[in-house]
Each structure stands twice: as structure tokens, then as C-alpha cells.
User: Fold this.
Amino acid sequence: MTDADIYPVPTNWAKDARVDAETYAQMYGRSLADPGSFWLEQAKRLDWIKRPEIAGDWSFDEQDFHISWFRDGVLNVAANCLDRHLEKNADTVALIWEPDDPAAEPRRFTYAQLHAEVCRFANVLKAEGVRKGDRVTVYMPMIPEATFALLACARIGAIHSVVFGGFSPDALAGRITDCDSSVLITADEGRRGGKRVALKANADAAADHAPALQKMIVVKATGGDVAMQPGRDIWYHEAAAAVSADCPPEPMNAEDPLFILYTSGSTGKPKGVLHTTGGYLLWCALTHEVAFDYRPGQVYWCAADIGWVTGHSYIVYGPLANGGTTLMYEGLPNWPDASRIWQVCDRHQVEILYTAPTALRALMREGDEFVQKTSRKSLKLLGSVGEPINPEAWRWYHDVVGEGRCPIVDTWWQTETGGHMITPLPGAHALKPGSAIRPFFGIDPQIVDADGIVQTGNPAEGNLCIAKSWPGQMRTMWGDHERFFQTYFATYPGYYFSGDGCRRDTDGDYWITGRVDDVINVSGHRMGTAEVESALVLHPLVAEAAVVGFPHDIKGQGIYAYVTLNVGVTADDDLRRTLAQWVRKEIGPIATPDAIQFAPGLPKTRSGKIMRRILRKIAEGDTTNLGDISTLADPGVVEDLVANRVG
Ligand code: WTA
Assistant:
């Protein structure tokens, strides 16, 4: 690496940012040396009904495995995100909503208005029988009511489980059933890129396979024609008209569950990541303030979907806990054209933008004119999340979008971690395109080799583990605590294993290299290869399937499926299209395979294990370097796979 690849902290940031290099060193050091007092002090940024006296109480050891933070504290998340701002900031705009259609009017909600909306929503839930601890599934488009719904659950102590609006009825039904949720909040339809998304129709189809479901609360978003089932379905606007806007927040223990969010793992069905109340909220609030150097009054836009953890932590909980102004956008970054994202920045004078590399790569391809015809003068800081950002996209973000004046904050974290884990702080760290730079307060990253040996010294490369608990850590997998332990703590005893590969350079800066397990990161969305495989083998003509990731220019990784058909079935392009559609219908559009190769046989060891290493190489087009194939039951299949590669 040359010096030209290092971007020093700009002088004004070093001078004015909340955390400069010295403060970072001092705070980071204290957070590891004396976590108890460090975190009890940080906890003061929240409004507690009963202030905690215990910080972290945890052990990653199998014998004594437990994780808790602030377990003697009592608070309410919605009260922290709303009520406590009312005294001074009732008229501050909390939420700006930018509609899909650029000609439609944005909506704005002050803290006072948002508070009233959330209380009303909470009373509707109560009227439908929802109580503390009940699970409520949320299947919503990107409309303000989605935010109301989350905070309404938090207000009454119900556990929300948001299912991304792009998931299929089957995927939705599976998630409703897994957490035994009797209430679903949805909308008639969503809008995205000028098209309508049939959410209510999908929810109806899901309900047929989700016996636990008893009530559906339907928000009228587009006014589209939908069927309402009497006794089960309720229009939100009708129910809301019948309740008051006064709803006291439920006192919650810091360790009471706040939400479940399903995410893909390397094996089996999606797992319900569970986050709790106190530690999670503190983590969101602190990271949002420090990593983005957020100041109340600034318009902040996280362009994620509320269906992913980024939407939870950084559209809703972090910014609102900080009394900020959060922008929520209904549509797509490149619709009606590739200027839209920058036009939204201009329209609302966005100062901080947080988006994903996949969006940047897609926009970059359209050419700089789409950016340059907008002003973007309001932008001060640019964030990135979801996948490794390639240096080319990083430089484009920095030079073209930010005109060289905005630090790029590349935040590495996961659904499981609740919020940022490794990220530069804009006033403290010199930047390097593609590096997530340094651990956040309290985070003790360790790079471990395949044998579990911790790599001390720099440079180092291996698997990324975290040696100590942090407040935002997930607490369990819904309904399967044993799987929680096995998935994250069994591989390297005493450590949380992230599933990511990582390099630490000679300066001590961290570079995330991508997943080392069977999870593919498609456009910043996690997809388990096992999920796509099970969808494929459900098709009556398919005998067997193996799925791997391969490098994709825009998506980061694409989905490559090897499919063995039943004997006598003709393999042709029609069937290829049919199977791609099939997966789309089974899981959702994000799971659609980019390439399907028909394979008479898959490379298996004598014990029947598919050797994915070989399949990955072939999908990548790296067929000259397949390594040792002598352990295969039938090395002959490899030749056919190489010859019929799709690319
Ligand atoms: C990847 C999204 C490199 C990583 C917040 C992780 C990243 C997975 C970055 C989690 C980044 C996320 N640099 N890789 N800045 N951010 N990842 O659960 O592989 O949807 O394990 O959480 O995304 O995805 P998840």
C-alpha cells in the first residue's frame, strides 16, 4: 500500500469531532481495562426508570455460558426514543418520510407527533389483545407506520419480528410460526420504483400456512384493492380512530427481549436473532452518535430497509434515542433515475448518508453526470455498511459524491452484533479505502487461524472473533439457546466467532475479507446456501442441488446453483428460467440464482459430503487451480462441471 491510499483526518474534523485520536485511545483503553465503570457511565445517556448498578455479567465458556448487561436496570425503549425528548424538543422533526414517487409530498413528524402516533398504535395493539412478551410480526413497506409499529411494540413490551417486505409468503409463514406470533402488521401494498408490492395478498397466502396467526392489522398505504377477512383482519385507520393517544410506557427490565430478527446462517433455516432492551439501545445510541459524529439538528439518512438490522438500529432506534432527525425513504436509490438518491439529499439537506456498497456500484456504473447535476453541498459524512466496500467504489463515494470533503465511515457489524463493531471514527482515524479500521469502544477483536491459535502481532490474517461481550450483543436464538452456543461459541472456545475472514495490516487496521462460511452476501443481504438448496430440491424435477457464491460486479456476490435433475428430465433454458422463478417464489427475489448449471453429478467425498471448495472455484471461473480432487468418490464429475460452466 502506498501513502496515497491513506486519507488523514481532515483538520476541521480532528478539531471539532466529538472523539479525536487522543480521546479514542483513552476511551477505548478504559473500555477494555475497566468495562464495568466505563459502561455504567455510558449507560447514563439513557433514561432509566431504575438505573443499573451492574454492567456486563457474562461468560462465553460452555460450562457457565450466559450474557447479560445492566440486568438490574429498568427502562422503556420507546420512552427513550420519544418521551424524554418532548420537554425540550417536542417541535423538532423526528422523522422525515420521502415517498417513492418524487412528485408526491414528503411527510414530517415532530417528536410530539411521532409520540402521539406511537401511543395510538400501541393502544391499537393492546385493544387487539397484545401483551408484554407477545410476538408481533411486522411485514411492511417503507412507510412511517412501520416506524410507529416498531416503537408501539417497544412501548408495550411486545417483541417485534420484522420480516423484509421482499420475502415470499412461505418465508413469512415460516417466521410467523417459528416465533409463534399471533398478530401480523402489514399494509395493503407497498411502493418501490413505481411498482406496487402486494403485501396483503402475500400475507393472506402466508396465513394459510401459519396457524398461529389470529389477527392482521392492515395499514392503508396505497388504497389498492385488497380482500379483508372478517374477524381476522382490521384496518389500522379504523382501529386507530377508536383509541386514545395516551399510552404509558411499560417498565421493562434491561434484559427483556426487544425484538427478534431472522437472519441466514450457514446451515438450516433462518435463525431468530434475539436482542434485548437496555444494552441494545445503548449500543445503537452510542455508535450512532460517535461513528457518525451525529449532532441533533442534522438530517441523517440511513438508506437501508427496515426489514434488515441496519434499518432497526440506524433508521429507528439509534437516531431517535439521540433525539435526531431520521429520514426514511420508501423507494429505490436509482428510480426514476440514477440521480434520485442525490436529489433526496438536496431536497432534505441531508448531512449524513449511510448506504451500501452495492448501491454505490450500481450508481457508479451509470456515470458521474447523475451525481454532478445535483448539489450535495449539505453532505458532511458518508457511511457504508453491509459488505466489504471495494476501493474503487470507496474512492468514487469519497471523490465524486463527497467531493473529497466527507469522511467515509465503513462500518463492519452484523445482525448478531446489534450495531457497529469495527469502524473508523471521523475525527480520530486516518482512512484507507476498503478498511473498517479500528474496533469500537469495548470491542476486543482477535484474529484466529484455522487451528484456533490467536494471531498476535501485525500483519495477521484469519477468522474474526470477538473476545469479550459488548452491550449490543444478541442474547440467544429464539427457541434454540443450544444452537446459539453451537453457532457462535463452539468453534473457538471462549470467543464469539463472526463467520467473517479478516486481515490486520502492519498499522493495526482491520480489513474484512468476507464470509468464511456458507453464507453468501448478495447485494449486502445475507443468504444461506442451504436455504436456496432446500428451495431448489423442493421442485419435483430436481434431485439434488448445491449452491455457492461467486464474484459479481454489482451485487458483490451472486448466487450460482448446481442442479442435478431427476433421471429422464430434459435440461434446457426453459427449465433454467422455471427453476430461477421457483426459488424467487419460495424465498423472494433476493434469492434468485444468477446462474444455474445442470450437473449430472456433484463432487462428493466417499462419505457423501459435497466439496464446495471445488464448486466455488468453478463458479469463479478459476478452473485451472482446483486443488486435490483425488479424495472424490468420482473425480470424473469435475471434468463435466468444468466443461459446462455457465458464465
Ligand atoms: C458483512 C449487516 C465488510 C459481513 C449490518 C457480515 C461487512 C455480514 C460490512 C452481516 C463491512 C457487513 N465490511 N463486510 N463494512 N458490514 N458486512 O447480518 O460479512 O445483514 O458478517 O448485518 O455482512 O450482515 P447482516
Observations:
- Residues 523-644 form a domain with the GMP Synthetase; Chain A, domain 3 fold (CATH 3.30.300.30).
